[in-house]
Amino acid sequence: WHLETSAHGAWFLKLKKTGKSAHASLPEHGINAAEILTEALAGINKDAKDYQKSELAISLTRINSGKAMNQIPDYAEAVLDIRFRNNDVQKKIGADIKKICKKHAVETETIVTAGCMNVDLNKKEIMDFVSVAEQVLGRKIPAGHSLGTTDARYFCANGIPCVVIQPDGGGRHAEDEWVDEKGLSDFCEIIHKYILEYTLI
Fold first, then answer.
1. 8 Å CB contact between 12 and 112
2. Concatenated DSSP letters for 50-100?
3. What element of type H or E holds 22?
4. pLDDT digit string (tens) for the chain, length 201 residues
5. Is 124 helix (H, G, I), strand (E, B) or coil?
6. For residues 83 and 75, what is the distance between their CA atoms, to the nearest angstrom?
7. What pairs with residue 63 in β-bridges?
8. How far apart are alpha carbons 121 and 141 in whole angstroms?
9. CA-CA distance, 33 to 129, in Å (whole number)?
10. Most buried one in 50, 116, 125, 185, CB count within 10 A?
11. Are 17 and 40 in contact (CB under 8 A)?
12. What distance in Å separates the CA atoms of residue 41 and residue 56, rounded to the nearest whole number?
């Protein structure tokens, strides 16, 4: 029960390194793409530590290289999930990544970029929804920034009021993900009450 007033943007970035294959017993005859890519990733991770968690999060979500266990890999790639607080943070970390990748001759490819979200709490529709939620729950609804990224950004970017809120839960995208059963019931009641009071003519 936390109303998101803003949310991080997301940048999914692929890093690609080409090397030269060789037998693993003679590594000096090849160029190990995996090792070089790993060095670049370590540099990016080091730079990311200069930021607060509320500003930036970089997660290595995919990494792949090699065709055989006894062969020096001639190609390696990785995907980074980058979450940023605002465009200035993305621009700064983007410059850092570009510098590191240039040093290691690593190519980059943007898979997708998702912008940040900002909600105007003074919009009547938002105020009405919060009022209904507080009536149903019997308490104030806190508001603040989310470290995640939401599709609500598409609506907000076009001036469409959008509420991002959820019942108590946890373990997002993990095996122990859960949501409170009573919270779901309360959520249904909030939506139903809001529709009856403010949207039906």
1. yes
2. TS-TTTEEEEEEEEEE-SSTTEE-SEEEEEEEEEESSHHHHHHHHHHHHHH
3. strand 22-23
4. 889 888 999 999 999 999 999 999 999 999 999 999 999 999 999 999 999 989 999 999 999 999 999 999 999 999 999 999 999 999 999 999 999 999 999 999 999 999 888 888 889 999 999 999 999 999 999 988 888 888 888 888 888 888 999 999 989 888 999 999 999 999 999 999 999 998 876
5. helix
6. 27
7. 78
8. 12
9. 53
10. 116
11. yes
12. 16
- On whether the CB atoms of residues 17 and 73 are closer than 8 A, the answer is no
- Give the Cα-Cα-Cα angle 166, 171, 172 (nearest 5 degrees): 60
Residue 88, amino acid: D
Whole-prediction pTM: 0.80
Tokens standing for residue 109:
């490819």
**Residue 187 has which token pair?**
């959520």
